[in-house]
Specification:
The complex is a heterodimer. By secondary structure, chain A is of the alpha+beta class. Chain A is about 20% helix and about 35% strand. A 4-stranded antiparallel beta sheet of chain A has the order 5-6-9-8, with helices on one face. In chain A, strands 1-2-3 form a 3-stranded antiparallel beta sheet, covered by helices on one side. Classes of the chains: A alpha+beta, B alpha/beta. At the A-B interface, strand 5, strand 6 and helix 2 of A face helix 2, helix 4 and helix 6 of B.
Chain lengths: ~120, ~425
């Protein structure tokens, strides 16, 4: 049996979640303030994911802010960065426009978070 | 020029206040913004986590801002960019200056102050050493990276663990810089727990609690800093000195409400918050002048800024329409475990719920927060843990505000002696 303590990052409250694990089986989850915290804690010890936010340089030296539409596996974050940094974007761009489709075959798109005319 | 309502600042507070005033019947509004776009600091806060309370979704700063900008444009609310307010008087005259119009004076029926805050800089800390380049506030570095596209350095030390410092630790790491460590003078971080996890722990960046920078080296460009552990009285323990090579030092050591212009208008300031003293309408001691957002007190979450700005916007509209209800003021005092309370005074018999915000002075576990009317406990709320970095609130519901004795209220915190 293994005890794991996590700080939930779903919302700014930051609950301390305690998990008890026996080999690969999760025995109990406690301390989470909501259902989303429960889901986060399970995911965090099996397949941790993060939303990636960054920028891409576009025409006229402007910066376009982008994000991964959903959280992507943590270990792929730095690889995603190098792909994003090599991309060219044409303006105008609207919030939500897909900039890179299915990055690293994660099934997740990189989308714009800014309107640029 | 005459205007019903002038709003100083077009960031999240100014925009939300304008929209609320509009929705409450005031259409003749002017927002004055010194930057070249609306949105304030949100434009450079490209990370996510905004709007969880308000929109129940996780937005980035620019996305959160865009929701409000859209409404401003849809309502056709007038705003001027690149326009800096240089004077404000108690008879509600505002003077601004911009490149096209020069100096312009406006007489307003009501004014909302929403100037936001700025970062504490090296000068406020008195760190000894040389004065090389490469020392920035975390927010300035954020603007360099996210808006201008420059990296402020490659080997970085961050002093202070406020949220912007933590966010920048991650941001700079993603862009290829190496963040050596984050030093925090206090025994706890000034930032949110979630940011310590996802910005520092994820990238194995050490958070050195009870550490500070005591010397800066470098002639033209910063070449390194000396960090040191501090004792309980925050004094350096010199035997723990450690030299760290770096080409950039970022400071994330607190925010100060930006309120220089309120002095001349004789608006009373709260010494602790750095903002004006206000009632539950966010009205200052000068009738018809309101304040909200980070200019009033520094918030952790923009969601709460928007909420507060809506109160100010609605109240300003009611003031202009002569519907504002001032009955009898009582003050809200507090004990030493609480750093400040906003609003500082409230009206009794208002027939409305009143939400009061406060910050605690230190970290405590298992506390009971009590609001007292004389000897009587009117609200009592348990909290498993509280920290200065996280704003707390209590709602005084209208049944209570309608039955207050008329004496000043007192907010106190009961906690175990065994501290966190």
């Amino acid at each position: 049996m293994k005890k794991i303590e996590l700080t939930c990052i779903v919302c700014p409250i930051g609950c301390t979640i305690k998990l008890i694990k026996d080999k690969d089986k999760i025995i109990s989850v406690s301390g989470n303030g909501c259902k989303r915290g429960y889901d986060y804690s399970i995911e965090e010890i099996t397949n941790p994911k993060r939303t990636l936010t960054t920028t891409i340089r576009i025409e006229n030296d402007l910066m376009l802010s982008v994000k991964s539409e959903k959280a992507i596996p943590k270990e792929k974050i730095l690889k995603c960065m190098s792909i994003i940094n090599g991309v060219k974007v044409k303006t105008p761009v609207k919030i939500g426009d897909v900039i890179i489709k299915d990055i690293l075959k994660t099934g997740i798109d990189i989308v714009s978070t800014k309107n640029i005319n | 020029m005459n205007k019903d309502l002038v709003i100083i600042g077009g960031g999240p507070a100014g925009m939300a206040a304008a929209i609320a005033a509009y929705n409450n019947g005031i259409k003749d509004i002017l927002i004055l913004e010194r930057n070249d776009c609306l949105g304030g600091i949100l434009g450079q806060c490209i990370h996510n986590g905004f709007g969880l309370h308000r929109f129940n979704e996780e937005l980035t700063g620019p996305e959160y801002s865009a929701k409000f900008e859209k409404k401003i444009k849809e309502y056709n609310i007038d705003y001027k960019l690149n326009s800096m307010v240089i004077d404000l008087t108690k008879d509600k005259k505002v003077v601004y200056v911009n490149e096209k119009e020069g100096i312009v004076e406006i007489k307003a029926k009501a004014i909302i102050l929403a100037m936001g805050c700025r970062e504490r800089s090296r000068g406020a800390l008195n760190i000894p050493g040389t004065r090389p380049s490469g020392i920035y506030t975390a927010g300035a570095a954020q603007k360099f990276v996210n808006i201008k596209g420059y990296l402020p350095g490659k080997h970085i030390v961050i002093l202070g663990s406020g949220d912007i410092g933590l966010i920048m630790a991650r941001r700079l790491t993603l862009e290829g810089a190496s963040v050596k460590c984050v030093c925090e003078l206090m025994p706890y971080s000034g930032g949110l727990n979630r940011n310590i996890v996802q910005c520092l722990n994820d990238f194995n960046i050490p958070l050195k609690l009870e550490h500070t920078v005591i010397e800066i080296f470098g002639k033209e460009r910063i070449t390194g800093v000396t960090i040191v552990k501090v004792d309980k009285n925050r004094k350096p323990i010199l035997s723990t000195k450690e030299y760290i090579e770096c080409d950039c030092l970022l400071l994330s050591v607190g925010l100060i409400p930006e309120n220089e212009i309120i002095k001349k208008a004789e608006i009373k300031k709260d010494k602790i918050t750095g903002g004006a003293e206000v009632d539950e309408n966010r009205q200052t001691n000068i009738e018809g002048i309101f304040e909200c957002g980070n200019a009033l007190h520094v918030h952790d979450l923009v969601d709460f800024v928007s909420e507060e700005a809506e109160i100010a916007g609605k109240s300003a509209a009611e003031y202009i329409l002569q519907k504002i209800n001032i009955k009898q003021y009582i003050k809200i005092g507090h004990d030493y475990a609480i750093r400040y309370v906003v609003p500082q005074k409230i009206n009794i018999n208002k027939d409305e719920d009143i939400k009061i915000y406060f910050r605690v002075a230190d970290t405590y576990k298992d506390v009971i927060i009590k609001l007292k009317d004389g000897e009587k406990n009117i609200i009592s709320r348990k909290r498993p843990k509280v920290a200065p970095g996280e704003m707390e609130y209590l709602v005084i519901n209208k049944n209570i505000t309608n039955s207050l004795s008329g004496k000043d209220l007192f907010l106190e915190m009961v906690y175990n002696n065994e501290k966190n």
